[in-house]
Amino acid sequence: MNHLVIKSNINHAENEISITSNKYDEIKFLFPYEPLPSFSCHDYALWAILPLAMKNGDHIEIHEPISKRAYDSVKKIANIWYFWIPNFYKKINITAHNIIESNSFEKNNKNLMCFSGGIDSTYSAFKLQQDNIKNVDSLTVHGMDYKFKDTSKFDQLMEKTKKLRNSVFTNSHFVKTNIYAIYSQHKCNPSFTHVTHIFSLFASLSIFEGYEQYLIASDDRLDQQFLIHPYGSNSASNRLMKNSTGNLVTLDDDVTRLEKTKYLAENEFDLNSLSVCGNAKARPYNCGICVKCLRTKSMLLAILDYVPNIFVDNELGNDWFSKIDLTDLNNQMYAFDTLLHVESKNAQDSFPGFDNLRKKLYTAMLNRETNKLKNYTKFQIVKAIF
Ligand SMILES: [Zn+2]
Hints:
10-stranded mixed beta sheet; alpha/beta; 12 strands; about 40% helix; Rossmann fold; binds zinc ion
């Protein structure tokens, strides 16, 4: 096993926290708009280094104080991913020299929620407002959807979402980090799934010590999570991710993205704050032609019978789905939900390309099942049936 010694460094002059080690490039967290958070343990450092350690089977050694809750939780999560994807993630070990019992940390009776401006976090934020829940702060991480150096686009996102954030959250926090780029550089994501996103987020959340709960909007409804498993942010392993004072709570995993979009569209929510685009050059505005924009545009058309003016290109032609790869399970889910909704309104004739999309989707769904069966021998299938 590779010995990995990590060190957490606090630089008050530069308003920066970093994690250095004997193996990997420096992971930085910067706070351009607020003072450095104060914390008594370095749980964030363990969470931040974990995907790198899992990828390479490291034995992590840390001298800075960490909480018992985080120590236990990091080991549990590492074992889960090792068990789920043993070809990709390896077993890790941790030697922590200063473990602090968790009842010694002060809590602030508040919650901290990840907010990106996409449909999922916008829906969950709007629901908090509707439910009159007031003790929530937000954290937006710069360095994931927006590249570390792309400050002007991130500033535009902050401006676009300001009204919503100010009306829902007590305080809006921002952290700028290169963590996502370091994970990519070391190829910490398996090719068929996306894992590192949740570690980038929970490491960033854990810098803000004291919260009772750390909230993240679910990407998919629970049954849909089963379909795309194993995927980084999921209701099963998220709930086991802990730091000194709180754990990660997945919000709204009982609704699909279509249902979230419908709720926003039908409850007088100002859709102008939505940033759904997958094209880095266009963000935070919505290009209207990338796959993510097309999915959202078609959902909105199915729900409202028109496309609201939140895309640079607002058109949706008969072959709008030709660029959408329906072997991708996420795309299958959206197409399935959208077609079901159109059918429920009996609006098949007015929805562009309905019949062709339905045929293409059902072929892709059947192929998915056939491909699964290919993993078994004829003998195994016959044995399972009889
Ligand atoms: Zn786009």
